[in-house]
Amino acid sequence: MERNLLLKIQYDGSAYHGWQVQENARSVQGVFQEALKQVLHTQPDIKACSRTDTGVHAREFCLSMKLSHNIPPERLLGALNHFLPPDIAVLSCEEVPLDFHARYSCCGKRYVYEIWNNPIRSPFLHGRALHYYHHIDEKKLNEAAQHFLGAHDFTSFCTLDNRDMGDFTRTVTESSVTREGDMVRFTVAADGFLYNMVRIMTGTLLAVQQGRFVPEDIPKIIEGKNRKLAGPTAPACGLYLEKVFYKPQI
Amino acid sequence: MERNLLLKIQYDGSAYHGWQVQENARSVQGVFQEALKQVLHTQPDIKACSRTDTGVHAREFCLSMKLSHNIPPERLLGALNHFLPPDIAVLSCEEVPLDFHARYSCCGKRYVYEIWNNPIRSPFLHGRALHYYHHIDEKKLNEAAQHFLGAHDFTSFCTLDNRDMGDFTRTVTESSVTREGDMVRFTVAADGFLYNMVRIMTGTLLAVQQGRFVPEDIPKIIEGKNRKLAGPTAPACGLYLEKVFYKPQI
């Protein structure tokens, strides 16, 4: 009998060319499929909540797959964690209705961009956070981040490529900049994200820090619908997919 | 004119065979000396607060060196951080009296042993914490840890080798086990440490967790002055040199 499984995984993306399988590059999906093959001796079709770029991390990344194999979910979890490398872990594995799809059933995601804000780099955060030398005024950046809230056409915050077609309107439901010691975090949740959206938002907030923009410029940058108006794309290393939202299962 | 400099450094020890220079092995000291050579074009004699084993980390490791080069301390700090790899950082660099010696002037050190206590490993803590599957009763382990406090002969908590001669009495001034979410930490400070002392203390605390000992066994293990009475040596990956104590400079 065909079953549908939802797996939540976590990974340090430093050593991977993103999620998506690519030729001649090590991807999280590729390594995950290898582990699956060792456990199930078959290659189920995996549906993922999204792609992530090279070097981007995930504290929660969701994928679903249909399979006829009758392995209990908790057994599959243990076996996959045995075969996966230490920088990838399966957090949970559960049976879900057959019409569940990790990407199409997703109703939102939360990302966090982490910035190590100290003149001295941290040896423990190499590839895990952006190192920013000058002191960040997190209150000012938080003020700027408030302007992302709501439904907007985020064309200015999107690297155009084939994957983003049609409507560029996304609804941002959380947007804040906070500090915990020397760690500054930009947290943003939305019903969906355009390509590079969080990294361009972060680069724009850092341009506010550098005095290139004031917080009140954000609405104008959004309205302009032009990528050239926003700040640069921040490096991948600070970005974490934090949470994937699904409607409660009935 | 000869000057004496105190440098505080931080490193992720995962990629190193400890601090000490060794033939045919990459050590923190070796890499540090290479960077020094590039900056100063000379090879000062470095005095270090201690050695660390392969895979052990340092949030604060101290070293002193005498040099006649007149480079300002803050310039040396910046230049070293430029030439050092990302998993080593110089936190501070200051001039100290000529009689200061990173090892002989040291009056104590604090270590922290970190344990990721969750059935699922963390991809972000590989090589950075011990992964312990079963739930740890941190209150019970803390009770056991209290018995380390005070001046004791710690022969039972020492891997005998050439470096530990003479008196095995050390005075433990801090010893506690705490939990923060899934992270369990054993913190221990003393006027000095024997070889593998913190790792054997940790292994013994984990043996308490496993029911091999009760907290009240610790005094008997200490009194027995026999390595075989204590628990195993915990892996290096969870160990951090946290702080090095020096008498205030007059």
From TrEMBL, chains A, B:
* EC number of this enzyme: 5.4.99.12
* Record field: transmembrane: none
Q: Which UniProt keywords apply?
A: Isomerase, tRNA processing
SUPFAM superfamilies xrefs: Pseudouridine synthase
Q: Which InterPro entries match?
A: PsdUridine_synth_cat_dom_sf (IPR020103), PsdUridine_synth_TruA (IPR001406), PsdUridine_synth_TruA_a/b_dom (IPR020097), PsdUridine_synth_TruA_C (IPR020095), TruA/RsuA/RluB/E/F_N (IPR020094)
Catalytic activity reported: uridine(38/39/40) in tRNA = pseudouridine(38/39/40) in tRNA
Binding residues annotated for substrate, in chain numbering: Y111
Q: Does the keyword Transport apply?
A: no
For this protein, the record's Pfam families field holds:
PseudoU_synth_1 (PF01416)
Identify the CDD domains for this entry.
PseudoU_synth_EcTruA (cd02570)
Pseudouridine synthase I TruA alpha/beta domain residues? 10-105, 144-246
Identify the Gene3D superfamilies for this entry. Answer: Pseudouridine synthase I, catalytic domain, C-terminal subdomain, Pseudouridine synthase I, catalytic domain, N-terminal subdomain
Please list the GO terms describing molecular function: RNA binding; tRNA pseudouridine(38-40) synthase activity
Annotated catalytic residues: D53 (nucleophile)
- The source's superkingdom equals Bacteria
Any GO BP: tRNA pseudouridine synthesis
Family, as annotated: Belongs to the tRNA pseudouridine synthase TruA family.
Its annotated function is as follows: Formation of pseudouridine at positions 38, 39 and 40 in the anticodon stem and loop of transfer RNAs.
Q: What does the record note on quaternary structure?
A: Homodimer.
Q: Which PANTHER family match?
A: PSEUDOURIDYLATE SYNTHASE (PTHR11142), TRNA PSEUDOURIDINE SYNTHASE-LIKE 1 (PTHR11142:SF0)
UniProt-recorded name of the protein: tRNA pseudouridine synthase A
Tell me the organism: Hominenteromicrobium mulieris
